[in-house]
Design a protein that fits this description.
Heme Oxygenase, Chain A; disordered N terminus; 65% helix; 10 helices; mainly alpha
């Protein structure tokens, strides 16, 4: 690549937000997951929805420790308020569902997370979690057809009081403001793709 083209590419990269670059870099993995989830017809019945909740519970168990991480909280100031693991557990309780029995430790372990977590990788996983909350508006509407709402069975799908779009913009604004080097940028993408693959594997377990 000649110097002019290289400078143009670097300028384009710097002018595109990290959230938009992440979306572009994870489109294939994300689309594959969305198709697999919908193939399982998670809202065709309460039983199918229960399997969807089991997927959500295990994924949010993987990342729950991140919401207590001091370094991440400094980068994402409202991080603790974004935690949904407890809501998912309550949704399962509402429907008299047993919590899934995991066969491995969470991806991020609470007693080691402050010392061991790679912040760039964690940002990728949190991007996936927050993106799923933004995309849950449609799911929340169809959950209501099963008699579920923000007070019973679908707490974790409900929108934030400030609105989903504003809540998402708050997250991406903070994410875009984090200073990372090229290697860390790559690990954010790797983390996001790993999170999508993890959810895909959980869907396969639940829906076969």
């Amino acid at each position: 690549m000649d110097t002019a083209l290289q400078n143009h590419a670097e300028t384009a990269h710097s002018e595109t937000s990290r959230a938009k670059r992440l979306k572009a870099a994870t489109t294939e993995t994300h689309d594959r997951l969305d198709k697999r989830i919908m193939a399982g017809q998670p809202f065709a019945s309460v039983a199918n929805y229960g399997r969807f909740l089991a997927v959500q519970h295990q994924f949010h168990r993987d990342i729950d420790a991140l919401y207590d991480n001091a370094a991440l909280s400094a980068l994402l100031p409202d991080l603790a308020d974004r935690r949904r693991f407890g809501q998912i557990g309550q949704d399962m309780k509402d429907l008299a569902l047993d919590l899934p029995q995991p066969d491995e430790d969470p991806r991020f372990v609470a007693d080691a997370v402050d010392d061991a977590v790679d912040l760039a990788t964690a940002l990728g996983w949190l991007y996936v979690a927050e993106g799923s909350n933004l995309g849950a508006a449609f799911l929340f509407k169809i959950a209501k057809a099963l008699g579920l709402d923000e007070n019973h069975g679908a707490r974790h799908l409900a929108g934030h009081p400030d609105g989903r779009a504003q809540h998402w913009r708050s997250f991406t604004g903070a994410l875009d403001g984090v200073t990372l080097d090229a290697a860390e940028e790559a690990r954010v993408v790797d983390g996001a793709n790993a999170a999508f693959r993890r959810v895909h594997a959980l869907v396969e377990q639940q829906y076969g």
